[in-house]
Automatic annotation (TrEMBL), chain A:
<dbReference type="InterPro" id="IPR003593">
    <property type="entry name" value="AAA+_ATPase"/>
</dbReference>
<feature type="domain" description="ABC transporter">
    <location>
        <begin position="4"/>
        <end position="234"/>
    </location>
</feature>
<keyword id="KW-0813">Transport</keyword>
<dbReference type="InterPro" id="IPR008995">
    <property type="entry name" value="Mo/tungstate-bd_C_term_dom"/>
</dbReference>
<dbReference type="GO" id="GO:0016887">
    <property type="term" value="F:ATP hydrolysis activity"/>
</dbReference>
<keyword id="KW-0547">Nucleotide-binding</keyword>
<dbReference type="Pfam" id="PF00005">
    <property type="entry name" value="ABC_tran"/>
</dbReference>
<keyword id="KW-0762">Sugar transport</keyword>
<dbReference type="InterPro" id="IPR027417">
    <property type="entry name" value="P-loop_NTPase"/>
</dbReference>
Automatic annotation (TrEMBL), chain B:
<feature type="transmembrane region" description="Helical">
    <location>
        <begin position="111"/>
        <end position="132"/>
    </location>
</feature>
<keyword id="KW-0472">Membrane</keyword>
<feature type="transmembrane region" description="Helical">
    <location>
        <begin position="207"/>
        <end position="226"/>
    </location>
</feature>
<dbReference type="Pfam" id="PF00528">
    <property type="entry name" value="BPD_transp_1"/>
</dbReference>
<keyword id="KW-0813">Transport</keyword>
<protein>
    <submittedName>
        <fullName>Multiple sugar transport system permease protein</fullName>
    </submittedName>
</protein>
<feature type="transmembrane region" description="Helical">
    <location>
        <begin position="12"/>
        <end position="38"/>
    </location>
</feature>
<feature type="transmembrane region" description="Helical">
    <location>
        <begin position="272"/>
        <end position="289"/>
    </location>
</feature>
<dbReference type="GO" id="GO:0005886">
    <property type="term" value="C:plasma membrane"/>
</dbReference>
């Protein structure tokens, strides 16, 4: 049993704050992903939980214990590093059993634990090789095996998949998820890849410039981004954003055209400067999307470009001089310049304050 | 023959450009080598040049191998090597680990660390000769003033004290070589495995023992190889400090060989000794190289 809680955790390098007072409670067996652009403090936060970085201020607790001043080895955690960090002079078997050997466990227990980990991760044929003789994916697996052998309270993953190629990354993503289902331990996982965050997490923590911007389940952060940063960071392609001014129940754009207010907008005064947001999935040519049940706005737009992906095409077009992306299901060939009638699903549109980027309405 | 002619014609320019180097090596290295090897089978004495043609087959070797003085010099050299290399390694390792922890002024510290290497070994010899001198030496002076010794300690006269004094000078001068090479290793050392080991439950000593030290071993063996060749031909410090004496008690291989060759003028016999002792150097080089290869084998993934 181990919850992890971060209470006003600050990391300071000299006079510069890198992490500004983070609060986060992670439940037992929860899979939490810290995601954000590079330099947002996510890795630093993870390393503070691991004990590899000092905490400048605040408190970190694992289970009931405050671990601020405990060495990494006293925290009962395992960590998987971006560069695997295997011990190059030891065989796979020795790598897997190293932590138990250090803990002074009996030989047969170490051998059994290494064997079990190797079986779970499909490493049995490689037990006597050294890391130098393994491929990237196999090394990654050894790193994970080394982590599970300890039966830790918490697993920490620091961008574990970023050194693998795209295909292997997808495969390992699934294995990590299976592993979590199998061993069921609290996991804190750091990545800059929003797809990894969406697919793996029970809960996503989005960070920027040392602050937590939003915390929520993958669907929550996808459907209710708290600001334009989250809106563009989560989801692929990023959310389309167009600036405008509220004017008589609609949003007047720079070229004089108007878009109806999203259905979930609360009370709003005329003249407020806003950013209108919607995803490509909610701008679809008529007849090339699911039948819309909610209110829609119909707009005619000329196509700039189409990117066929097979099951769907991404359509590049322009609204009020801003490049936006729509999506065409069951695609047909299109010509550049061709004018299509698009349906914009107003239930799924968002309104943000144009100055602060903060979401308006629920 | 036709093929050789064609080879020469096709490679005329490279061959012409290489020939000075080949010629110099032949004249400067190979010829003296063959000549000295021949003299080790002759009764060549410097004062009687015609003795060069006095071929005695293996008599020099037989005498050398039956000579107690030679064996004790050889044994003393091996002992000297063992102490010098191990102590220098331990001190150099400690020094490198300490310097590696310094965050401010490390460059200055590294430069200062190399000062002993900048002195000529002869000067180092003189320096320690005067420091350890039993009448005017600063060490004896200090010990007696502090009341730690009642009378002068004969540092350069007593068999073991003289040995230790020479060892001290050698270590003082050359520990920096180990420190620099090991420090280079520490700079190249990746941080990740160390952090992984910390998370895996290692305390600082265990991290050093299981991660840092295996990574440093190749660097240590490189330093050992270089230094073993260096120490095995230790001559200047010994010659200056004790001259191999008193009564041959601190005689190392090369002081003995030099004495036989130049003082006794028995060039043939000295060369025979030199060829026997080269085997010692070859053995040490081979030994450390094998260790080095074994240690490097797994480090590709670091």
């Amino acid at each position: 049993m181990a919850e992890v809680s971060l209470n006003n955790v600050v990391k300071r390098y000299g006079a510069v704050d890198v992490v500004h007072g983070i609060n986060l409670d992670i439940a037992h067996n929860e899979f939490v992903v810290l995601v954000g652009p590079s330099g947002c403090g996510k890795s630093t936060t993870l390393r503070m939980i691991a004990g590899l970085e000092e905490i400048s201020d605040g408190e970190i607790a694992i289970g009931e214990r405050v671990v601020n001043h405990l060495a990494p080895r006293q925290r009962n955690i395992s960590m998987v590093f971006q560069n695997y960090a295997l011990y190059p002079h030891m065989s796979v078997r020795e790598n897997l059993g190293f932590s138990l050997k250090i803990a002074g466990r009996p030989q047969d227990e170490i051998a059994r634990a290494a064997q079990d980990a190797a079986r779970i991760l499909g490493l049995e044929p490689y037990l006597d090789r050294t890391p130098g003789e393994l491929s990237g994916g196999q090394r990654q697996r050894v790193a994970m095996g080394r982590a599970i052998v300890r039966r830790p309270d918490v697993f920490l993953f620091d961008e574990p998949l970023s050194n693998l190629d795209a295909k292997l990354r997808t495969q390992m993503r699934i294995e990590i998820k299976k592993l979590h289902a199998q061993v069921g331990t609290t996991i804190v996982y750091v990545t800059h890849d929003q797809v990894e965050a969406m697919t793996l997490a029970d809960r996503i923590v989005i960070m920027k410039d040392g602050h937590i911007v939003q915390t929520g389940t993958p669907l929550e952060v996808f459907e209710r981004p708290v600001n334009t940063f989250v809106a563009t960071f989560i989801g692929s392609p990023p959310m389309n954003l167009i600036d405008g001014v509220v004017d008589a129940g609609a949003v007047r754009l720079s070229d004089g055209s108007a878009l109806p207010l999203p259905t979930r907008t609360g009370p709003i005064r005329d003249g407020q400067r806003v950013t209108y947001g919607f995803r490509a999935d909610n701008l679809m040519p008529e007849g090339h999307g699911p039948a819309e049940t909610g209110p829609v706005a119909t707009i005619e737009l000329p196509i700039t470009l189409a990117e066929p992906l097979g099951a769907e095409s991404l359509i590049l077009t322009e609204i009020a001089g801003v490049e936006v992306q729509g999506k065409m299901l069951t695609p047909r060939p299109t010509r550049p310049g061709e004018v299509l009638r698009f349906q914009l699903a107003l239930d799924h549109c968002h309104l943000f304050d144009a100055d602060t980027g903060v979401r308006l309405g629920q | 023959m036709a093929r050789l002619r064609r080879f020469i014609r096709d490679n005329a320019v490279p061959l012409a450009l290489l020939s000075p180097a080949v010629l110099v090596i032949l004249l400067v290295v190979l010829l003296p080598l063959i000549f000295s090897f021949y003299t080790s089978f002759s009764n060549y004495r410097l004062i009687r040049p015609d003795s060069l043609w006095d071929f005695v087959a293996f008599r020099n070797y037989a005498r050398v191998l039956g000579d107690g003085e030679f064996w004790s010099a050889l044994w003393r050299t091996v002992l000297f090597l063992t102490f010098a290399l191990n102590l220098e390694m331990l001190l150099g390792l400690g020094l490198a680990l300490l310097v590696n922890r310094i965050t401010w002024g490390q460059r200055t510290m590294r430069t200062i660390m190399m000062f002993p290497m900048m002195f000529s070994p002869i000067l180092v010899g003189f320096q320690f000769k005067y420091m350890f001198n039993d009448t005017i030496g600063v060490v004896n002076n200090a010990l007696q003033s502090l009341g730690l010794a009642q009378e002068a300690i004969p540092f350069l006269v007593d068999r073991w004290l003289a040995f230790a004094s020479i060892l001290f000078a050698e270590i003082w001068m050359s520990t920096a070589i180990f420190a620099i090479l090991i420090l280079a290793g520490l700079f190249a050392m990746p941080r990740d495995p160390v952090e992984a080991a910390k998370v895996d439950g290692c305390n600082n000593w265990q991290v050093f023992r299981h991660i840092t030290l295996p990574f440093l071993m190749p660097f240590i063996y490189i330093a050992m190889t270089i230094r073993s060749l260096d120490v095995a031909r230790a001559y200047d410090i010994v010659d200056v400090m004790t001259g191999g004496g008193p009564a041959g008690r601190t005689e190392l291989l090369w002081t003995l060989i030099a004495r036989t060759a130049y003082d006794d003028a028995r060039m043939g016999r000295a060369n025979a000794m030199a060829y026997v002792s080269i085997l010692l150097s070859i053995f040490f080089t081979w030994f450390f190289f094998r260790k080095l290869m074994a240690a490097r084998k797994h480090l590709g993934a670091f």
